[in-house]
Design goal:
8 strands, disordered N terminus, binds adenosine-5'-triphosphate, binds magnesium ion, ATP binding, YlxH/NBP35, P-loop_NTPase
Length: 285
Amino acid sequence: MIDQASKLRTMVKDKNMDNPIKIYSILSGKGGVGKTNFSINLGIKLQQMGKKVLILDADIGMSNANIMLGMSPSVNLFQAIVGNTSLSNIIKTGPEGIDLISGGSDLFFMEDLNKESQEKAMEALKGLGVYDIIIIDNGAGISKQSLTFTDFAHEVILVSTPEPTAIMDAYRVLKAISIYKLKKQVKIVINQVPDISIGREAYNKLLNTANQFLDIELENLGFIFSDIRVNKAIMEQNPIVLRYPNSLASENIDKISKNLLGNKDFDYNVSSLKQLGNRIIKFFR
Ligand SMILES: Nc1ncnc2c1ncn2[C@@H]1O[C@H](COP(=O)(O)OP(=O)(O)OP(=O)(O)O)[C@@H](O)[C@H]1O
Ligand SMILES: [Mg+2]
């Protein structure tokens, strides 16, 4: 894992300013804290702000981004490669022109493919088109997959609720990131906060513990209020930022999107989609 990670890191250093792309890995310790809802709504907001966004649903076996987006499930990459399905069947375009690919499990079945199929898979990935931003929605907890995507992405956004159990699990994820030296900095979103003071308290708890025990820097990306319209929007299979744009949670996600784009770091460590494909293939060799 460490060896693979260092290979990946070497590749990340390559720059191609012609086709900059920024990859975010969305993580959590505890399950059900709101990663998928955040990922799709963040993606839609960024798309509305003029970025071309791809969501990679990497929650193996439990992928549900398509349901929240009101989209039918896409053929995954593995099926496409094995069944010679065309690329257009892998990518589904959803609301506001956001693209979705169910790719996580496929990438990890890559090891089972013969060399020719691996090459084909990489060619497929490279040919995905040009995106400004890829958002990887991971499954909960620490797994080989989520750590790999964390290493692979340029930035990590760790989502937690203010509950002590969720904060403790978020800390465990930070610890893993720190131990494997995957990232120096992690952005934090505290979701489902009843009020700002509880959100701040939870963030500070995580910050203080990380400062004390880990070699990792945290950045508070923002809070999202607990909002019944999140549940309503999910029931209606219509992302909240579209269905209830004036709701508290939508306003919070809007602010977080602006924080991300306003981030002075936005253009650093960029790489082209082609390099992204190369980075994945390096990992599996
Ligand atoms: N801001 C919020 N306010 C109220 N409810 C919320 C909010 N965010 C998420 N939820 C609720 O939490 C549930 C879980 O959300 P989501 O599926 O996005 O979590 P997840 O972290 O992706 O879960 P998993 O770990 O299973 O992938 C949603 O169905 C919704 O009901
Ligand atoms: Mg999820």
